[in-house]
Amino acid sequence: MNNYQLSEKFNEMSVMCEYAGENIFKARAFLKASEVISLLDTELYDLEDDFAIEGLGRGAKEIITDFLNSGRSKSYDELKARVPEDIFLMLNISGIGVKKLKTLCETLGIQKMSELFEKAIKGEIRTVKGFSAASEAGIIREISRINSEKNSKLFFVAEKLFYDIKHHLQRVNSIKEITPAGEFARKLPVVKKLSCSIIYNCETGPDKIAAEIKNSLKFNIGTLTEESVVLSILTPENFAGDFPLEFFLIRNGDKSEKIKKILALSIEYIKTSVKDSDLKINTDSMSESDFILKSIPALSENFDRLGFVKTAPQHSELVWKTLPAETFKTLKPFTTDKIKGAFHVHSDYSDGTDSLETIARRAKEMGLSYIGITDHSKSSSYAGGLSAERLGAQIKEIDSLNLKYAPFKIFKGIECDILKDGALDFSDDILKELDFVIVSIHSHFKMPGAEMSERIRRAISNPLVTMLGHMTGRLLTKRAGYSLDEEIIFTAAKKNNVIIELNSNPYRMDIDYKHFTRLSELGIMISINPDSHSINDAMPCINYGVNAVNLGAMPEDGIFNTKSAQEAESYFNFKKEIAGRLNKQF
Length: 586
Known about the structure:
The protein is of the alpha/beta class and 586 residues long.
């Protein structure tokens, strides 16, 4: 069990304490332990049994030791017995917190998600105090969404599990290499199955290597198929909970590198790129597993002729469907080193953890040339939203730090709330004192699509607006985006020279990469914005944004933060000059 999994267990214990009515301080202690573990640089399973970590008490240490030794904890199991069986699955329903869920479960005798869905379909939810027909309909929609995303994990969660697996399997002498495959290799924001390619020494048979893997990871073997002399599929059970794993066992040899590359590409891309005559099999009615087993040998034989060697795994996900063949063949992966700076960074003026000076110093150490500070505006009081006075104080501090850290540049910005009617949370007189303005929605998510689209259109039509933040408001695997008409928003963004944010927080990844082709056609720029609340999170989030850029094949000249500090400042000044001219006209 890795640190991420242990952190999640303590977080779950905190939630279960709240549901069970335990002492609030006990719940906070579990939450504190979760936070401490999540920030550790070293995996706990690599430490000695008598480890000591500041912030972790004796009780937390005992729970950790139990999880590491047996995968279970008595304290955890005792709390789990006092809450509904599907508590965490049901808490994924947007708008349902612990208190509301407890009311529903205790009133209607619910233990499982399926029971909640059945009660909602029968119209029983609306009979519970505090719930209505509308909230009942919302629960039905949310459960349908959750079921469609069942077992899916965010990319960074899959990534942590992959490196945990790799750490354990590196001890198996007969394994030569462990690499990503499938959706994980293509770095999708949400991964439905973690696939790995395992290249093993020729003298070791698939049965033997499977047994060695089983002993190392301590899971039960689901399926070991030997229909191909070069490839076997090993499906583990009971290792990663409800997250499916799939291992491709490949004998080391002349074809192993080719097979590894093929396994990283999307099956849809391969099927579209080859003819049945190339494979000498009919691929129309084949399942993915059958396709892999039966076609990989033929594909590896024709690898160079079919052009797979030039195809990046991420580019096979979408762009081959939409881009001209010649353009697709010349695509090159976009890399993080092309990012010159980061916007949408929160400081301790609102709900961030770091001071402005810490942010500036660390960003400079990371190799960035500039940073754009955007704390919350006044309506986001839950996130420490800034009053006009505090924003003024922040502006003065940034001016002082710019003198100290030059030529590194700190741009003065705000994440300004879009109010219900599309007006902005600060007046133009305040906004014009800033270098740039990001506008975002943080309230009234359930407006009809036409009203939501008009709300956003009005907001980004303000000439002082530079960027539109997290356009759909989605939280991957947690909350669907709100209803809107993207074309209305894109048209307004084009007309008003507004950049659309690619919010690269792994929970958001909003705007979706599938829109990049359209944005590129319209000449609308994106900005890879980390939406970081700690400067240490900024670069990992930017990396996730780079993944999305490759998935959607956004051209480099369409990415705003590939520009230098001077180029960015010129763009901001251009926007403010336009705003000034328009203001004089009226």
